[in-house]
Specification:
The complex is a heterodimer of chains A (340) and B (267).
Chain A: H1 3-6, H2 10-30, H3 41-48, H4 55-88, H5 101-114, E1 121-122, E2 125-126, H6 127-147, E3 148-149, E4 152-153, H7 155-179, H8 185-193, H9 201-220, H10 222-228, H11 232-237, H12 242-264, H13 270-282, H14 286-310, H15 319-339
Antiparallel strand pairs in A: 1-2, 3-4
Chain B: E1 7-17, E2 24-33, E3 37-41, H1 48-55, E4 63-68, E5 71-72, H2 78-84, E6 85-88, H3 100-105, H4 120-132, H5 148-161, E7 166-170, H6 178-193, E8 197-201, H7 205-211, E9 214-219, E10 222-227, H8 229-232, H9 235-242, E11 246-249, E12 258-261
Parallel strand pairs in B: 3-8, 3-9, 6-7, 7-8
Antiparallel strand pairs in B: 1-2, 1-4, 4-5, 9-10, 11-12
The chains are: A mainly alpha (340), B alpha/beta (267).
């Protein structure tokens, strides 16, 4: 075997990514056809061609398609964030919520729900969204500030501070739940379970200003993340600006995750499980792992949401329950494999 | 010191201290010329690795400056710096599962743009580096499953793939058997005879004295002495820096004195 055949060439790289892309597009096209109300593909096709409109086409385009797109964007953002954090934090069990983002967002959401007097809706956003986002970003900033010292940012401190912040936020949520009037508890619980049932195109558009720059920041640092696999010092020796990469990766995961949490609540395990599955299938080159994780994470969450919409139809299950039921066992398998 | 004009790398009156630690580098200066191997020796905690990090530009000194090819390091971009200086750290983990060849191609980072796919020149440079470091036979193996000594050779190859002018090697042979160590140092000498320079930190005084043109002896963040191995590897100098427990013997060959442990009165 000569060296030239071993090195990842752009052609081979694109071919492997194309497999993920084709599968993801297939999921995106097929998923809206399934749901509580069966849809005839012919009706939808007619509507696409502009020949007719009707209830079927409305369900497809106004109700299910935006929801499927949201699920895809949320799942993709979480998976890319997880894949990047697992490298930067040097921990295979790292996931997007490790930075306290879920905890902070949950406190914000629960607080907004618990004070109905504050509830204002403006365009696609309500006070819940605003407080969730503020909570996410505040927690992330606090953890980053605590972990940065004179010699740079300590990855171990970030990890520990993130876990601690999530616990603290858990306590704050319990306190709010204790104080609040009982009829609001149901709303809170539904938010905590994560769900994608709130959507139109405007909500979707509101998510893009956070998710797009976040995911973009992570994608452009994929070659540097490869370098970090050999340690910060070796990466620095090869010419990587390690401090800058750390900062921008945290900012990217923060933005992408905050976008996901704000719209869909804390949906667990996608950011943990999907990157591991992608690495199993496609190797460890982050230039492939990151975009493939986005596509696979998006597809995975779309399918989980499809399951959530159909299995107990005409009602729905929170999608967070399904991702946890699939993700939990996978997580355990990774954990026990590490111990071998 | 008037030879600094010819120096590929010169470190000028560098000071550095870590926050909340007693250790500090104090006014350290040295230079390496083209073709030269400079060995840096000294007891644990004397500042060898810190000095190498500063010389390689991955840490900035608190005062003083580092010149590479007569230009100030702080004025160079990180990639430009990595095209001149090849830094090999003491330890490098393998957190993702890359092949040996992928690991070596990491050294092309300062030459690549965008997504960092390798062009024909890059592939040739990687291949040449692997050949020089004698790791062509490992090309398809998983880097994380190599032995410590093999990893050190692969990482040297990744540094050579940067095509640097100066090698800065921190304990590069600590995980190697004596045969591998000798081969490694012979390679460093050969590369330097072809126009590179090397600064090598090592605890092995015999390797340092036999393969270096000059030695730099550090203690407590200061340069104690600098000069040819024969001037530094003496009972008097080493005892004053390392304390007792070592003996310097005249060697039967012409390659300089030998340092051996002295069992003293141990039962």
């Amino acid at each position: 075997m000569t060296s030239a055949t071993l090195v990842q060439s752009p052609g081979r790289f694109m071919a492997r990514l194309a497999v993920y892309a084709v599968l993801a597009v297939a999921v995106l096209i097929l998923a809206p056809f399934f749901g509580a109300e069966p849809l005839d593909p012919g009706v939808v096709l007619h509507a696409v061609l502009g020949k007719s409109a009707g209830v079927g086409a409305d369900i497809f385009f106004l109700h299910r398609l935006p929801r499927v797109l949201l699920a895809f964007l949320v799942g993709g953002s979480l998976a890319v964030s997880g894949a990047s954090l697992q490298v930067v934090l040097r921990n295979p069990l790292a996931e997007p919520f490790i930075l306290g983002i879920a905890g902070g967002g949950a406190v914000g959401a629960v607080f907004a729900i618990s004070v109905p007097a504050l509830m204002i809706t403006a365009g696609p956003f309500s006070t819940v969204h605003v407080f969730t986002l503020a909570g996410c970003l505040a927690c992330m900033a606090a953890i980053y500030f605590l972990a940065s010292g004179a010699t740079g940012v300590s990855m171990n401190t970030i990890l520990l501070a993130g876990v601690t912040f999530n616990v603290l936020c858990g306590a704050a949520i319990l306190l709010l739940r204790y104080l609040v009037s009982p009829h609001l508890l149901v709303t809170m619980d539904r938010w905590m379970m994560g769900g994608l049932d709130v959507v139109g195109y405007r909500e979707l558009a509101g998510l893009l200003p956070l998710a797009v720059p976040g995911v973009f920041l992570l994608f452009i640092h994929a070659p540097a993340l490869n370098q970090l696999a050999f340690g910060e010092e070796m990466a620095a020796g090869h010419g990587v600006d390690v401090a800058k990469v750390h900062k921008q990766v945290f900012l990217g995961t923060g933005l992408a995750t905050a976008a996901a949490v704000t719209m869909a609540g804390p949906i667990g395990f996608v950011g943990l499980v999907v990157p591991h599955a992608v690495r199993r299938l496609s190797g460890h080159d982050q230039r492939l792992v990151l975009p493939a994780s986005f596509l696979a994470g998006g597809g995975f969450l779309t399918l989980c949401d499809l399951f959530a919409r159909t299995v107990v139809a005409p009602t729905e299950m929170p999608v967070g329950i399904i991702t946890a039921m699939i993700g939990g066992p996978v997580f355990l398998r990774i954990l026990f494999k590490k111990r071998d | 010191m008037n030879s600094w004009k010819k120096a590929l790398l010169s470190v000028e009156e560098v000071c550095f201290s870590y926050p909340r630690a007693n250790f500090a580098l104090k006014q350290v200066s040295f230079a390496v010329e083209k073709g030269e191997v400079l060995g840096v020796i000294g007891p644990n905690g004397s500042g060898k690795s810190t000095l190498l990090r500063i010389a390689s530009g991955i840490m900035a000194p608190s005062s003083g400056r580092v010149l590479a090819l007569a230009g100030d390091l702080s004025a160079l971009s990180r990639k430009a710096r990595a095209r001149i200086l090849g830094y090999l750290p003491q330890q490098a983990p393998a957190r993702l599962d890359f092949s040996v060849q992928e690991a070596v191609s990491m050294g092309r980072f300062p030459h690549c743009r965008g997504a960092g796919f390798l062009g024909p020149e890059d592939v040739a440079a990687v291949e040449r580096a692997m050949e020089q470091a004698d790791v062509l036979g490992l090309a398809g193996r998983s880097f994380s499953r190599l032995s410590g000594g093999e990893r050190q050779r692969v990482l040297l190859a990744s540094v050579l793939a940067q095509q640097p002018r100066v090698l800065l090697l921190d304990e590069p042979t600590s995980a190697m058997d004596i045969h591998q160590q000798v081969r490694f140092f012979r390679l460093v000498r050969k590369l330097c005879s072809q126009g590179l320079s090397a600064v090598v930190v090592t605890h092995d005084l015999n390797l340092a004295s036999r393969f270096s043109h000059r030695l730099l002896l550090l203690k407590d963040g200061r340069v104690i002495q600098e000069g040819p191995p024969a001037a530094l590897i003496t009972q008097q100098v080493l005892a004053s820096v390392y304390g007792e427990g070592i003996r310097v013997l005249d060697s039967p060959d012409a390659a300089g004195p030998l340092v051996v442990p002295d069992p003293g009165g141990a039962p």
